[in-house]
């Protein structure tokens, strides 16, 4: 059993870590205040190959494995969680397209994603359908050899920046098999964007996409009619572990700030790190983060080996964000008034990481997945 990364993966981690420290971290607070990425960020990330991680080499990508994508996102999240979402979307949607698209579609779709020219959003959630994703109501009405998309998608990360989206709409009857997927432009007429005001990840561009008679053709259909829901569910087997690693990256950065503060701050004539009441809680959270990280990378390793990653991936998704929120909260308490201040190193991280308890499935949804995989649907909730 090998718990180490390959030499190539270690080098990737060092490269992305250095990039994040130099080009991302200095802008974290300003991005949060402005509610937008600084103007050079997307170009910088494209140049660093962050949108190309999971795109096959044949289409201009790096063709990296899932473990490598996890390494990159964990490093990026430690610098600024908000900037992870276009990278995560490129990995998830690029993988769904690569697995489902025809060769001529992939030639058209994937190279712009790898180059950072197409910024992609996942348009699944609706105002009345979040966890119950198989019940979405937005319809794709038949129109000649194509369809007309009308309706609303909401809580969509990267809405403010997206040029394209993977949109799920109902082409058939009720249930998962009535849902199809379309890859479409969302920066033209017949699509309106509205920003949402959020507690955290304020520069991530979460919002609504409102479709008003957007026509799509067979060239925009991803895979088979009625195959859209299954395609994205397969992608979640990897993306949920990636999101969990993003949470761990945030928590580790906050804990590092807390350890540094505890070593430097003195009280009663000695560093407060000498007091068990200060340092033991930090050690407990560091232990939990370490354990959660192992579950994440187990899931990604299983995906790379062609095994089913869903049990460890969904375990990681319900546990790691919850544990990360608690770890960042403890870091804030350790820093005292400096932690409470928005000018300090932790308050924003706490606001940001809370959102990962919702992204790509709540704790209840992911626990349900694990229960059904362990017990079978006939014996699970």
TrEMBL record:
InterPro entries: Acyl-CoA_Oxase/DH_mid-dom, Acyl-CoA_Oxase/DH_mid-dom_sf, AcylCo_DH-like_C, AcylCo_DH/oxidase_C, AcylCoA_DH/ox_N, AcylCoA_DH/ox_N_sf, AcylCoA_DH/oxidase_NM_dom_sf. Pfam families: Acyl-CoA_dh_1, Acyl-CoA_dh_M, Acyl-CoA_dh_N. Residues 226-374 form the Acyl-CoA dehydrogenase/oxidase C-terminal domain. SUPFAM superfamilies: Acyl-CoA dehydrogenase C-terminal domain-like, Acyl-CoA dehydrogenase NM domain-like. GO terms for molecular function: acyl-CoA dehydrogenase activity; flavin adenine dinucleotide binding. Its cofactor is FAD. Residues 6-117 form the Acyl-CoA dehydrogenase/oxidase N-terminal domain. Residues 121-212 form the Acyl-CoA oxidase/dehydrogenase middle domain. Belongs to the acyl-CoA dehydrogenase family. This is Acyl-CoA dehydrogenase. The lineage of its organism: Bacteria, Bacillati, Actinomycetota, Actinomycetes, Kitasatosporales.
């Amino acid at each position: 059993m090998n718990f180490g990364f390959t030499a190539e993966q270690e080098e990737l981690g060092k490269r992305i870590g250095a990039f994040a420290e130099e080009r991302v971290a200095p802008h974290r607070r300003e991005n949060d205040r402005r509610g937008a990425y600084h103007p050079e960020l997307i170009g910088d990330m494209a140049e660093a190959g962050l949108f190309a991680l999971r795109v096959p080499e044949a289409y201009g990508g790096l063709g990296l494995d899932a473990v490598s994508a996890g390494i990159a996102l964990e490093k990026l999240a430690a610098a600024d969680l908000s900037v992870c979402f276009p990278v995560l979307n490129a990995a998830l949607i690029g993988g769904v397209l690569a697995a489902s698209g025809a060769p001529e579609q992939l030639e058209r779709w994937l190279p712009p994603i790898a180059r950072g020219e197409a910024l992609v959003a996942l348009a699944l959630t609706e105002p009345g359908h979040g966890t119950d994703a198989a019940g979405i109501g937005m319809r794709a009405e038949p129109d000649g050899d194509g369809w007309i998309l009308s309706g609303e998608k909401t809580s969509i990360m990267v809405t403010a920046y997206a040029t394209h989206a993977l949109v799920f709409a109902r082409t058939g009857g009720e249930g998962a098999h009535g849902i199809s997927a379309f890859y479409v432009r969302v920066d033209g007429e017949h699509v309106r964007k509205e920003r949402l005001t959020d507690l955290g990840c304020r520069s991530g561009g979460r919002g609504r996409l409102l479709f008003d008679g957007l026509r799509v053709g067979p060239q925009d259909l991803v895979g088979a009619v009625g195959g859209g829901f299954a395609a994205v569910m397969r992608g979640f087997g990897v993306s949920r572990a990636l999101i969990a690693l993003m949470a761990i990256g945030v928590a580790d950065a906050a804990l590092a700030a807390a350890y540094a503060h505890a070593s430097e701050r003195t009280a009663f004539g000695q560093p407060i790190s000498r007091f068990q009441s200060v340092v033991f809680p930090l050690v407990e959270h560091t232990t939990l983060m370490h354990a959660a990280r192992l579950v994440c990378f187990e899931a990604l390793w299983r995906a790379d080996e062609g095994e089913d990653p869903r049990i460890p991936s969904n375990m990681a998704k319900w546990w790691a964000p919850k544990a990360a929120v608690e770890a960042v909260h403890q870091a804030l308490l350790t820093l005292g008034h400096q932690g409470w201040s928005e000018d300090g190193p932790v308050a924003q991280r706490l606001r940001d990481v809370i959102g990962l308890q919702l992204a790509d499935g709540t704790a209840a949804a992911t626990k349900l997945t694990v229960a059904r995989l362990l017990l079978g649907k006939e014996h699970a909730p």
